[in-house]
Amino acid sequence: MTDIAHLKTELSAEITAANDLKSLDDIRVTVLGKKGRITALMKTLGKMDPEERKTTGQALNVLKDEIADLIKSQERALKKQEMDARLTTEVADITLDTRPAPKGSIHPISQTIEELVSIFGAMGFQVAEGPDIEDDWHNFTALNFPPGHPAREMQDTFFLPTDPEESDPERAKKLLRTHTSSVQIRHMVETMKTSTPPIKTICFGRTYRSDFDMTHTPMFHQMECLYVDKGVTMAHLKGCLTDFVRAFFKLDDLPVRFRPSFFPFVEPGAEVDIGYTKDAKGGIKLGAAKDPADQKWMEILGSGMVHPNVLKNCGIDPDEYQGFAFGMGIERATMLKYGIPDLRTFFESDVRWLEHYGFDPLKRPNSAQR
Ligand code: DAH
Questions:
Q1: 43 Cα distance to chain centroid
Q2: Is the distance from the beta carbon of residue 205 to the nearest atom of ligand 1 less than 6 Å?
Q3: Residue 184 alpha carbon, nearest atom of ligand 1
Q4: What is the number of alpha carbons within 13 Å of residue 189 lying toward its C-beta?
Q5: Axis crossing angle, helix 50-89 with helix 21-32, rounded to the nearest 10
Q6: Taking a C-beta distance cutoff of 8 angstroms, is the pair 315, 189 a contact?
Q7: Domain residues of the chain, as ranges?
Q8: Which residues is 127 bridged to in the sheet?
C-alpha cells in the first residue's frame, strides 16, 4: 500500500512537472502503456493470494483512474497554455484584396486638356467657355474677317438654319463654330459689361469644319488663349508660348520659332513652329538637332497680337489696352506628344484603343507633377 501511495506522489509530481504535450504523452506511455509501470504492477496481481489481490487490485485501479484523470487535466492545462500563447503572439491577417474590377481610362484629349489647364493655371490663366453653336458675328465679323473671306464659305463652315427671332442678320446666321477664337469675343464683351481688363483666359472646346481625311475630322478640339492688359507686347507672347510648349512637351530646350503669318484677328500674326529631327527610320523626335542642317520644323499653333479692330468690336480701347492670343489644335498636340498616328481613331470609340492610349483616372496631372 505504502508503495502505491508513494508511486502516486511520484507520478503526480512528474505529471504536473510536464511542461509540454510531448513529455506528458511520454509519461502516459511509461505509466499506463502496455509496458507501463502501473500495467506492470497489475500483472503481479495474479501471483498474490486472493485477499491481497483484492485490496491491491482495488488500490491499483483507483491509482490508474486518478493518474489517467491527472494526465487529462494536465493535458487540458497545457493545451490552454499553448492556445493562450498563440493568441497573444500570432497575428492573423483577415484582410483580402478586392477583386480587380475593370477600370476605365481617360481619353487622350481629356488628358491633354487637363495638362494644359495645369500649365496655364500655374501662369494665372482662367478657363472660359463658349457655345458650340455660334453666330456669324462672334465667329467671323467681330474677329475682323473681311466680307467674302474663304473661311465663311459653305465648304468650310457648317451653317445652321437662321434664327427667325434675331433681327440682326449677322447674329441670326447660325453655324457650328469653326474655331474657339469666338470665345475670345464672348469673353471680352462679357468682361466689358461689368469691368475692364486684365483678361487672362484659356478656352477648350469642340470646333467644326467640313473636312475629312487622315489629318482632318469634321469635329476636332482647339485651345484658345487670350491675354489683354495695358502694355502687353509681342515679347510677352513669345515668353508665354515658349514656356508653354516646353512645359507641355517636357523638353526644356525644345527649339521654338515664330514665323510671320496672317490671321484677320491679329496684327502682327505668327505661326509657331517647334524643332524636331528625323531618325534613320523616318520617325519624328522633338528637340534640337546636333547639326543645325538637320533641324526640322513643324507648325504647332497660330498666334498674334490682338487686332485693334477686334478690341474695338468688344468695346475695348486699343490705345489703352493691348493683347495677345493664340489657338492650337488639341488632337495634333496630343498625337505629337503621345505618338498617336491617326487622327480619326480619336473618335471611333474603340475601347481597345482607349485601353492602349488612355490614361489612369487616378493619376491626374497637376502642377506638382510637372
Ligand atoms: N483660330 C485660328 C484657327 O483656327 C487659330 C488662331 C490663330 C487663334 C491665331 C488665335 C490666333 O488666337 O491669334 O486656325
A1: 83
A2: no
A3: 12
A4: 13
A5: 170
A6: yes
A7: 2-89, 109-369
A8: 202
Amino acid identity, residue 115?
A: E
What nine digits make up the cell of 217?
475630322
Q: Which atom of ligand 1 is nearest to the CA of 180?
A: 1
Q: Is 181 in the pocket of ligand 1 (CB under 6 A)?
A: yes
What's the predicted TM-score (pTM) here?
Answer: 0.73
Which residue CA neighbors atom 5 of ligand 1 most closely? Answer: 327
Burial of 197 (0-12, 13-18, 19+ CB in 10 A): buried
Considering the four listed CATH numbers 3.30.930.10, 3.60.15.10, 2.30.30.110, 3.40.50.300, the one that applies to the domain covering 109-369 is 3.30.930.10
Ramachandran angles phi, psi of 202, nearest 5°: -125, 150
Percent of the chain with pLDDT over 70: 98
Nearest CA to ligand 1 atom 2: 327
Q: Three-state DSSP class for 67? A: helix
Pocket lining: 304 vs ligand 1, CB cutoff 6 Å: yes
Q: In whole angstroms, what is the distance from residue 77 CA to residue 83 CA?
A: 10
What's the pLDDT tens digit per position in 40-67?
Answer: 888 898 888 989 899 999 999 999 999 9
Instruction: Determine if ligand 1 sits within 6 Å of the CB of residue 327.
Output: yes
